[in-house]
Write a structure and sequence with these properties.
Number of domains: 1
InterPro entries: AKR, Aldo/ket_reductase_CS, NAD(P)_OxRdtase_dom_sf, NADP_OxRdtase_dom
CATH topology: TIM Barrel
Number of strands: 10
Distance between the termini: 33 Å
Strand order of the largest sheet: 3-4-5-6-7-8-9-10
Helix content: 25-40%
Structural class: alpha/beta
Organism: Paratrimastix pyriformis
Protein name: Aldose reductase A
CATH class: Alpha Beta
Pfam family, one: Aldo_ket_red
Bound molecules: NADP nicotinamide-adenine-dinucleotide phosphate
Domain NADP-dependent oxidoreductase: 15-290
Largest sheet: 8 strands, parallel
CATH architecture: Alpha-Beta Barrel
Length: 309
């Protein structure tokens, strides 16, 4: 199974990355350093995560220690909803680059395909809706590639209709669609469409965003790592439920997806690399593919409308 996917730009992207959403400022720097020490070469962040500066410090330290060079790492960050107007797209990336202390990112994603009114950095709050045609945003994203500020561009949370639209006018087609993907939300048709169109897929929240719902007071149901089928398959293979979920995503589509579990715990960061060393059998995959559907991020709370159906 490949450790890398090849993007439609020809660049190689490590399939396993460290997620950093909700990684607190006090912990994300050591998490990134622990991940790089453990062998991760791909870090996923976003303007909206508010932790790019601490990640930048971690990167500077590992570069200064001579452990690794910039070109050995694959860094993804994302354009926030308040910067979709074409005149603000470059501003958002340049802000992120200053925080990350980098000259370019390997992949720049539009975080969500809907826009809010502009707010200057580092503002993050909910702003009013802004009717920006996505085509304008996408053409501004393409200019970032021309300028060498982003090696590749893509989208996140894009449904099939949105991708269909982008492909109609893109001079540079999206290299990636980063989507929610775990056994409660397998999305096979969307993945297959993406791959047919040369758009790679990254699985976000591969552990069901463990803890996020509990923190929001919803601990009673839909905890992926406590799902009886996930737990039974874990017991059968002498693995943890987390390993089963990560391996399921890693093994899908003949091993063509990227997976970005978040952790700030050094033991989890190391354990999560273990998704490469063993395999689920076909019966396990079938069972995991057919869990009851549940999307943790329907985005209704953010936008007042489901973005995906
Ligand atoms: N594009 C988007 O809209 C979007 C949306 C959501 C997420 N993402 C990206 O995807 C990444 C991952 O998604 P996520 O953060 O929602 O959730 P996730 O990776 O599914 O789950 C993270 C949670 O699982 C725990 N965990 C990690 N490894 C574990 C293990 N081996 N055993 C048990 N628990 C473990 C973590 O706690 P500890 O830290 O204590 O280990 C954390 O509470 C994000 O960080 C972000 O980079 C993108």
């Amino acid at each position: 199974m490949n450790e890398f996917v090849t993007l439609n730009t020809g660049a190689r992207m490590p399939r396993i990355g460290l997620g950093t959403w909700q990684s607190p400022l006090s912990e994300v720097k050591s998490a990134v350093k622990a991940a790089i020490d453990a062998g991760y070469r791909h870090i996923d962040t976003a303007y909206a995560y508010g932790n790019e500066a601490a990640i930048g410090e971690a990167l500077q330290e590992v570069f200064a220690e001579g452990k690794i060079r910039r070109e050995d790492l694959f860094i993804t960050t994302k354009l926030w909803n308040t910067f979709h107007r074409p005149e603000h797209v470059r501003e958002c990336l340049e802000y992120s680059l200053r925080q990350l202390q980098l000259g370019y990112v390997d992949l720049y994603l539009v975080h969500n395909t809907v826009a809010w009114k502009y707010q200057p950095p580092p503002s993050l709050g909910r702003a009013e809706d802004d009717p920006v045609p996505f085509q304008q945003t996408w053409h501004a994203m393409e200019e970032l590639v021309d300028l060498g500020l982003a090696k590749a561009i893509g989208v996140s949370n894009a449904c099939g209709a949105m991708l269909w639209d982008i492909l109609a006018y893109a001079r540079i087609p999206p290299a990636m669609n980063q989507i929610e993907l775990h056994p409660f939300c397998p999305q096979p048709e969307l993945i297959q469409y993406c791959l047919r169109k040369g758009i790679q897929v990254t699985a976000y929240s591969p552990l069901g965003s463990h803890g996020t719902r509990a923190a929001a007071g919803d601990a009673t149901q839909n905890v992926l790592l406590e799902d009886p089928v996930v737990r039974a398959i874990a017991a059968k293979h002498h693995q943890t439920p987390a390993q089963v979920c990560l391996r399921w995503a890693y093994q899908r589509e003949g091993g063509r997806l990227c997976v970005i579990p978040k952790s700030t715990r050094p033991d989890h960061i190391r354990d999560n690399l273990g998704m490469c060393g063993w395999a689920l059998d076909e019966a396990d995959m079938r069972q995991l593919d057919s869990r009851p559907f549940y999307r943790f991020f329907d985005k209704i709370e953010m936008y007042g409308v489901p973005l995906f159906h």
